[in-house]
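Hey,

The postdoc asked me to send both predictions to you directly instead of through the lab channel. I've kept everything plain text so nothing gets mangled by the mail client. Protein one:
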Amino acid sequence: MATEQTFEELVQEFISKSKDLIGTESDENLPPWHPSPFDKEGPPYEFSQRMTPEFISKYSLTIADDNPLYTDPDYGKKTKYGSQIAPGPVLALVRYPSVHGATKPGGYPLANFISGSAWEFFDVIHAGSKFRSSKTTKEIFEKPGSRGNLVFMTSDN
């Protein structure tokens, strides 16, 4: 007869299996597989969208940023950038900037809270840009919280 795991046992299993993922490439948010036209060799993996002018404009308006640098290709051509550019947060669509840890059928009884991301830019994102990404679990640690331990996971993208 199968016995059910307690909440605490499930949390410890999640932490243990998630620690096994440290330093390995995450399989979250990979490009679509066959017959997709995108390169599936990696890591790094090819982003399955193109930064077309339409894609950039729609994304910008979705985040309520109507800056003509982002929404008007003709305006962008007249600027120092020479083309329409994309707002930096669009890179979160390339590959979601966090990891979620181990998985199992039915899931684990844990919630995720994404506390932030840091980006370092070396150039603007032009219309037509293509991206490849890699994402690995960097570390997992616990800290005491007011209602029990909190589990922290960091990733490198």
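Protein two:
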Amino acid sequence: MMPSNPPTKGELTLTGTVEDGVEKGCTILRTPVGVYLLLGGDRTLIGEGNRITVRGRAEPGLLTTCQQGIPLHVLEVRAA
């Protein structure tokens, strides 16, 4: 499910469940408002199946090899 209004380059706080992406090495966060590709962040907290809250900046125009989710540069992560 994609958000009705794609995020801008502003800062977002999102809560969701971490999943492995379809491409190796890609990690996504599935939230009620959409799917985000997690770039950076503490990988001890960002593990498949974990429910987390992240704060970051969306980069909707950034091209990646992951082909899934809106790229999100993670600034902070915590368990939800």
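Summary for protein two, as requested: Strands lie at 11-20, 27-31, 34-39, 51-58, 70-79.

Thanks,
C.
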